[in-house]
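Reminder: ligand-aware prediction takes two inputs, not one.
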Amino acid sequence: TGKLLEVKDLHVSFFTPAGEVKAVGGISYDLNYDEVMGIVGESGSGKSVEAYSIIGLLQSPGKVIGGSITLEGEDVLAKSKEEMIALRGSKVAMIFQNPMTCLNPVYTIGNQLIEALKAHDKKVSKEEAAKRAMEMLEMVGINNVQKRMKQYPHELSGGMRQRVMIAMGLICHPQLLIADEPTTALDVTIQAQILELMKDLQKKTHMGIIFITHNLGVVAEICDKVSVMYAGKMVEQGPVDDIFYKPGHPYTMGLLRSMPRVDAESYERLIPIEGTPVDMLNPPEGCPFAPRCEYAMKICLQKMPPYIELGENHRAACWLRVQDQLQGKKQDAAEQ
Ligand code: SF4
Ligand code: MG
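Here is what comes back for the chain with magnesium ion:
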């Protein structure tokens, strides 16, 4: 344990011809070694943008305009492009929904793993690198590794490619793994296997993982804590049990209602959250969720709610919770 990553009041904007899009509007969290944090939200909520900022993969016209990112005590935002590349080859790895964003179709699996390792560790011999590549493939549950080393990505199944990508990510032993919807494209059984695998690897390596997903089922499966994002804001944050059993924000409650149940039958009967996501070019004043919130009050349209502590490491930004707190205080006063 111990602190691995600290993100403080991070702001990221995209400067588009149509105007500034505040994709991430001031989010903060800590991640320890050995910890898995889920970042949950709809597409466009800023969850990927936030994670890409950590590893310097933010694409133009995106720009970090405020806040700080500290990884193992080092200021990430002060690093040069070259230093960021080195960081991604060593301390931080990322895996994506589409393995082909990481795998090169014209090189064999073995070749790519060996190159990834050699880029990180210039002194390693080819034989040693091949040996470690095969060990890594075995570790991610691939059989017949001798044969797999000589194959090209297109010769593997989707689930197998995903495993290879994970092997690529982990071969340099990162302290931090960022996983952006890595199982979304897979069928349910393979998805479960990959999650199981990631949990296992996490226990063995003690790395911290940021798991980006829109699927709360995945969160329940693998995460210790959760940050819920809406329209670039962190609307709720807490230990996974608190998020599931004591959600404090109406958006989190909506996500929970729309979560596919474990029994396969109910898959079609999701209750979607009504209304459309925020127009990020013209976000509403006040609480960004107000246009879709069944509890919205007048103040919600006027002012962004502050964070209210709901429990240990559990907080939400919602005026309802502010009211609860005020009422609690009144009651305390009355009882005294
Ligand atoms: Fe709904 Fe108001 Fe809470 Fe926003 S602050 S989630 S609009 S009740
Ligand atoms: Mg995304």
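The chain has a mean pLDDT of 88. The longest strand covers residues 3-16. We will return to this case in the review session.
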